[in-house]
């Protein structure tokens, strides 16, 4: 849940860099936690925290890209801002593909870093919100009966009541009743709103030729 | 009375004796130091005189005349005895002095007693004369009388003479060479034979045991002949010596000419310096080297050719060098300079060879102008330094990512801390303690960055090799710091085993760092294809041989035994992008430090060992 203040996790093997970044973040009103290695972070971080990770790309044993993958595998929503000593196109592309918010070259100025942190936190919050919404929509879908779910699928594929009735082997009136119940349970006032909800929850219409 | 042949023979013997005597008197006049010849002359003359005395003794008609003739015969006898003593003494160069004195003294005493006791030393009184007819009808008088008791002194004198001659002959015989042995046998033997035989015979006659005239002259003549023969040997030997001297003079002149030809034609500059430090000989090369003409050098002190700073030291050196006579090369280890006429100093290499003649000692100085060689050496050293520099830059290029990180870390710390401080200061509730802490961190980071840059700058610096005493462990520390990040990125663990308080070695910190850097990077590359955990082990220790060893071990599977030496050749590489110069340069650098670098296979990989001489042992 997006509860509490956002936390910025700083992972860098250099103690001086850790302290400097923590102070800078604190001066901008962020709460920061520091870790000396990727493994230490993966062990200790708060999985429900909102915030972001500032990650040094070059670290012993477990480098930044490996940690990015580990975080994704754990289903973490924390966006990553990479810091690196020298810009390397190949690794930066890999990092961005892996979902990094930004890829900054050391030494990085406060504006650059803080704006990246702000973007990352906003993204994190948005991710949490989106996840919440999807969960909500899925909850509504779960209240539908099997028949109503069938009607929903047909509606999403843009079929008219008459066609749905024909497909499902019933009369048009019955479909109308189902449709009203679906709209009510899904809290959608228009067909367009229903389609948008479904899209957001990742529900796709069944192909029309089915059955 | 027919022909008196005894008179003829005696006269002939006297004449022969005199002739021989005068011949040697002439020899003595030519060579006054040959006292033996003088002694011989005296002897021969005395023998001639004695021969006359003997004739008058044999022809005496009354006992009184015989006694008087015998008394006077003792004068030449005495001179003969003294001459023998003198001859043996001078010619043999042997014999005890006290025997010389004693024998001479008793002989003189005999002569004295001869005139003051009895009618002579042999007879108290001659009472009668017997007449014996000799061969050929010659009638000789033989005395009869009372023996003089003082005759004992004569016997002692004769014994002393025998002892002296025997002693001198034995001494001479023992000296051993054939010539002296011949001399001892011939002269010593004949004298002894005469004294034993002839005087014994005389004694018997005079004592009346044997009735015969006292015929001593032939015996004396034998001695004269023997001595003359002996002396003529010396004359022959002297002539031979003169001939030899002549040939050796010719060959001496030839060898002198050879010496001159050698001195003139060798490429080296050569000076011959006498014990007083004066130049006595030069060659054209020396004249060219120093810029002086020959006349300007001969007789001048050699210090003229030595730069002022070395002059006083040279003088003491020259004296001590003259004392120990052996050839020695100088100017190889330390730089020597020759001073030219125009004041310029020329680097030279010098070899000194002491020479001794009978009456003087010299030092032969051979010099080579090494200006060109020094220049070549300098050029070679500069090229070596340049190649070393290039390879250092290349090695650092490979490390550039790691080095950027090393610098960016502190810069990042500084920037974030500084900007945090700026933000804190903009607030109303400034926490000054916090700002102070920030400043401490900034200063630390700045130093850290500065340190990295210093190390980098040092490695990148292009310069001559500068040797000074250094701690090999500090070299290891610097390299471990520089490569730390790179090794981390390569997943290589570095372990060090540094022996504390190692004695200092003499070397160039940067070039030694370069060597270690190269070895460490090579070790990492060797382990890239190996699945086992990568580890580089750096070790320093003192060896038994009085040097310090630095070694780098990896676990990269080792080097094929056939390649252990080949890898140090230039352009031999196992890497895809290697120049193949790294190890060859490393070996050159260590060689220039007077050390050794080689590879061994130990355990799971290769170990590179590098020894360096201690600062006290530097060549």
Give a structural overview.
The complex is a heterodimer of chains A (211) and B (619). Chain A has helices spanning 15-27, 38-44, 64-73, 89-97, 110-142, 146-156, 161-168, 172-185, 191-200, and strands at 7-11, 31-35, 51-56, 80-84, 102-105. Chain A is of the alpha/beta class. In chain A, α3 (64-73) links the parallel β3 (51-56) and β4 (80-84). The two termini of chain A are 41 Å apart. Helices cover 58% and strands 17% of the residues of chain B. In chain B, strands 3, 4, 5, 6, 7 and 8 form a six-stranded antiparallel beta sheet that branches. A five-stranded mixed beta sheet of chain B has the order 10-12-13-15-14. In chain B, a hairpin with a 4-residue loop joins β12 and β13 (547-553). In chain B, α15 (509-526) runs antiparallel to α16. Chain B is rod-shaped and about 170 Å long. The mean pLDDT of chain B is 83. Chains A and B meet through α1 of A and α12, α13 and α14 of B.
List the helices and strands and how they pair.
The complex is a heterodimer of chains A (211) and B (619).
Chain A: E1 7-11, H1 15-27, E2 31-35, H2 38-44, E3 51-56, H3 64-73, E4 80-84, H4 89-97, E5 102-105, H5 110-142, H6 146-156, H7 161-168, H8 172-185, H9 191-200
Parallel strand pairs in A: 1-2, 1-3, 3-4, 4-5
Helix pairs in contact in A: 6-8, 7-8
Chain B: H1 5-30, H2 35-58, H3 63-92, H4 97-116, E1 123-133, E2 139-147, H5 151-175, H6 178-206, H7 217-265, E3 269-274, E4 279-282, H8 284-290, H9 294-297, H10 308-323, E5 328-330, E6 336-339, E7 345-356, E8 361-369, H11 371-398, H12 400-426, H13 432-460, E9 468-470, H14 472-489, E10 492-498, E11 505-507, H15 509-526, E12 534-542, E13 547-553, H16 582-592, E14 596-602, E15 605-613
Parallel strand pairs in B: 10-12
Antiparallel strand pairs in B: 1-2, 3-4, 3-8, 5-7, 6-7, 7-8, 9-11, 12-13, 13-15, 14-15
Helix pairs in contact in B: 1-2, 1-7, 2-3, 2-7, 3-4, 3-5, 4-5, 5-6, 6-7, 11-16, 12-13, 12-14, 14-15, 15-16
């Amino acid at each position: 849940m997006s509860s509490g203040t956002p936390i910025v996790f700083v992972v860098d093997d250099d103690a001086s860099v850790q302290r400097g970044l923590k102070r800078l973040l604190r001066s901008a009103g962020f709460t920061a936690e520091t870790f000396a290695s990727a493994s230490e972070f993966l062990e200790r971080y708060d999985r429900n925290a909102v915030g972001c990770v500032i990650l040094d790309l070059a670290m012993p044993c477990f480098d930044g890209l490996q940690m990015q993958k580990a975080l994704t595998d754990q289903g973490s929503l924390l966006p990553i801002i990479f810091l690196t000593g020298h810009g390397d196109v190949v690794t930066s592309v890999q990092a961005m593909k892996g979902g990094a918010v930004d890829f900054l070259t050391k030494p990085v100025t406060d504006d650059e870093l803080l704006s990246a942190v702000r973007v990352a936190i906003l993204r994190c919050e948005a991710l949490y919100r989106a996840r919440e919404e999807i969960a909500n929509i899925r909850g509504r879908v779960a209240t539908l009966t099997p028949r109503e779910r069938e009607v929903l699928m047909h509606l999403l594929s843009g079929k008219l009541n008459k066609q749905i009735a024909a497909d499902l082997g019933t009369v048009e009136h019955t479909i109308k009743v189902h449709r009203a119940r679906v709209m009510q349970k899904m809290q959608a006032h228009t067909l367009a709103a229903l389609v948008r909800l479904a899209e957001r929850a990742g529900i796709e219409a069944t192909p029309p030729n089915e059955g | 009375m027919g022909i008196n042949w005894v008179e003829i023979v005696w006269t002939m013997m006297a004449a022969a004796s005199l002739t021989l005597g005068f011949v040697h008197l002439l020899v003595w006049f030519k060579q006054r130091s040959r006292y033996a010849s003088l002694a011989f002359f005296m002897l021969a003359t005395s023998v001639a005189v004695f021969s006359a005395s003997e004739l008058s003794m044999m022809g005496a008609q009354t006992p009184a005349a015989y006694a008087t003739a015998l008394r006077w015969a003792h004068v030449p006898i005495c001179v003969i005895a003294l001459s023998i003593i003198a001859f043996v003494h001078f010619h043999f160069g042997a014999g005890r002095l006290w025997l010389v004195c004693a024998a001479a003294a008793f002989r003189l005493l005999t002569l004295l007693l001869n005139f003051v006791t009895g009618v002579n030393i042999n007879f108290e009184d001659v009472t009668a004369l017997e007449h014996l007819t000799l061969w050929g009808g010659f009638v000789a008088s033989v005395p009869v009388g009372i023996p003089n008791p003082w005759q004992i002194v004569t016997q002692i004198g004769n014994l002393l003479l025998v002892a002296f001659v025997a002693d001198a002959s034995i001494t001479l015989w023992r000296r051993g060479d054939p010539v002296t042995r011949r001399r001892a046998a011939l002269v010593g033997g004949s004298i002894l034979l005469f004294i034993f035989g002839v005087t014994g015979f005389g004694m018997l006659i005079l004592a009346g045991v044997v009735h015969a005239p006292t015929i001593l002259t032939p015996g004396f003549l034998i001695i004269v002949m023997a001595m003359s023969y002996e002396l003529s040997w010396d004359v022959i030997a002297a002539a031979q010596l003169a001939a030899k001297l002549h040939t050796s003079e010719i060959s001496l002149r030839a060898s002198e000419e050879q010496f001159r030809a050698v001195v003139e034609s060798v490429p080296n500059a050569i000076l011959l310096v006498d014990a007083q430090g004066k130049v006595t000989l030069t060659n054209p090369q020396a004249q060219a080297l120093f810029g002086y003409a020959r006349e300007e050098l001969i007789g001048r002190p050699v210090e003229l050719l030595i730069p002022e700073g070395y002059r006083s030291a040279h003088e003491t050196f020259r004296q001590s060098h003259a004392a120990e006579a052996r050839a020695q090369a100088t100017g190889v280890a330390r730089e020597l300079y020759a001073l030219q006429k125009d004041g310029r100093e020329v680097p030279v290499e010098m070899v000194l060879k002491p020479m001794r003649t009978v009456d003087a000692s010299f030092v032969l100085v051979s010099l080579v102008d090494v200006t060109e060689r020094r220049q070549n050496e300098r050029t070679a050293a500069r090229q070596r330094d340049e190649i070393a520099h290039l390879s250092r830059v290349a090695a650092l290029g490979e490390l550039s990512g790691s080095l950027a990180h090393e610098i960016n870390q502190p810069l990042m710390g500084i920037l974030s801390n500084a900007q945090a401080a700026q933000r804190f200061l903009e607030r109303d509730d400034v926490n000054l303690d916090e700002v102070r802490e920030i400043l401490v961190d900034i200063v630390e980071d700045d130093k850290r960055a500065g340190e990295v840059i210093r190390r980098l700058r040092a490695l990148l610096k292009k310069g001559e090799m500068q040797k000074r005493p250094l701690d090999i462990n500090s070299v290891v520390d610097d390299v471990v710091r520089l490569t730390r990040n790179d090794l981390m990125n390569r997943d290589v663990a570095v372990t060090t085993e540094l022996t504390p308080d190692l004695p200092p070695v003499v070397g160039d910190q940067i070039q030694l760092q370069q060597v270690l850097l190269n070895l460490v990077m090579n070790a990492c590359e060797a382990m890239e294809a190996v699945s086992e955990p990568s580890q580089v082990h750096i070790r320093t220790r003192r060896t038994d041989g009085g040097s310090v060893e630095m070694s780098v071990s990896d676990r990269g599977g080792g080097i094929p035994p056939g390649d252990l030496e080949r890898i140090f050749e230039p352009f031999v590489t196992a890497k895809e992008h290697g120049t193949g110069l790294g190890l060859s340069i490393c070996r050159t650098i260590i060689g220039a430090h007077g050390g050794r670098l080689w590879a061994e296979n130990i355990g799971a990989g290769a170990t590179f060992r590098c020894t360096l001489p201690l600062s006290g042992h530097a060549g």
